[in-house]
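Worked example
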Amino acid sequence: MTPARAWIGFGAMAVGMFLAILDIQVVASSLIDIQADLRIPADKLSYLQTVYLIAEVIAIAITGWLTRAFSLRWLFVGGLIGFVAASIACAVSPNYPTLYVFRAVQGLFGGVLIPSVFSATLLMFPRERQTLATVIGGGFATLAPTLGPFIGGWITETLSWHWLFLVNVVPGLIAAVIVATLVRIDEPDLARLRRLDWLTLVLAAVSLATLELTLKEAPVRGWLSPTAVGLAALCIATGAIAIQRSRTRAEPLLAVDVFADRTFAIASVYSFVLGMALYGAVYLLPLFLGIVRVLGPLEIGTIMVVTGAAQLAFSPVAARLEERMNPLILTAAGYALFGAGMLLNARTTPTWDFKELLAPQILRGVALLLCLLPTTRLALGSLTPAQVPQGSSLFNLMRNIGGAVGLALIDTILTTRTPAHVEELIAKLQAGDRATAAFVGLPLERFQGVPLGPIDDSTRDMVEPLVKAAAATQSLNDGWTLLGILCLATLVLLPFMKAATPTPHSRPADAPPTPLH
């Protein structure tokens, strides 16, 4: 495989991965339109996203094993064609049960694309080109969540919700043809399919599915509710058995032995926290702009595109730093900057708009690649070629699970803290607190630090929506604070990691494909 073929093929793989990650964000922009058109009950609407996420994490977990059976090229091509076909089926679904089925299929096929790209960064290129490949792959992976609201908002306001799915078709098919034609890394080993551990597959699927359902239901029903406890127990039990079976089999479905490497294990913790921070940020900011600032999808996307622009502008610098600096130092800088951006957002007031949100978004955009690139190198750099596909699967799985956990924690904060903030704001306003009145957005003449006395109905009607918006802002700030502190807390793990010289994964460009055994 010549260098030109490798880069063109890898670029097509990155595009396919971008479509899969982007899909979850753009669909979120048009949930209300889909609900109205297909008459989806309000209590079932969120499952449009949940079924995709459940299927995606299951696919990510087993992608390493599937890579060795089908080869990286044909697994990626099959996954991308399946993703495109499921996208078309979603667009033409006549009712919501049908849409949910194809949405799950879409998640299954889309899930295999993400870790495949990160495996390719190490398996397709010589050592001196792996950094650039990782920058490209990581850039596409982190750009998708930040550009998703803008792209989704534009499609929602310009076209119809069907195009949220149909937009995948043309670029997906082109990318599939390019990968099938140009990429040559390894050969299929279809005999492995006869040795598939079906019981472990079912156990792992149940564990990951119940994990997602626990994280979805617990913030609403309560973490100690029978539903949440039952789902969590089933998740832990099936997960423990799946892990134990994987540890004792010659060809494990889940290569959990890679966690015995301390650097890989700690890098996976960083991946988990990055998932919390990345997906938490693209959840919190649209909530603020939609609920408090009452902006439309396209306006929200226009503001949020700043993070993506900062990331793109900084990517050449990140690539050079990645080649020249200790990955531990880059990791420290990345998570410190990301945490600082989060804590800046934690100072949000109900009046913040584009100007005030600019600095924290730029900080997060600059930090993203500094978080992802060095930890990916640390995690996968010392693995053998046979370990890379499954190590990449587990490393990416940790980021997705982190995102799910982060969203569940944020939902819990919003559910529990908002009523408390409302009561606190009301008490301070009734006491005549001037700073609270300024935060809420009330005229300051009546607030002189003395109790206000009785309030008439018209005043209450005027104040109530302002207080609710202010309380929502404070709850969102609590979420930003939690994520910022978690990012900074990861820095204590750096002394326990080792920036060892990576094992070379590449072969000469003209070498024949070989199985990853």
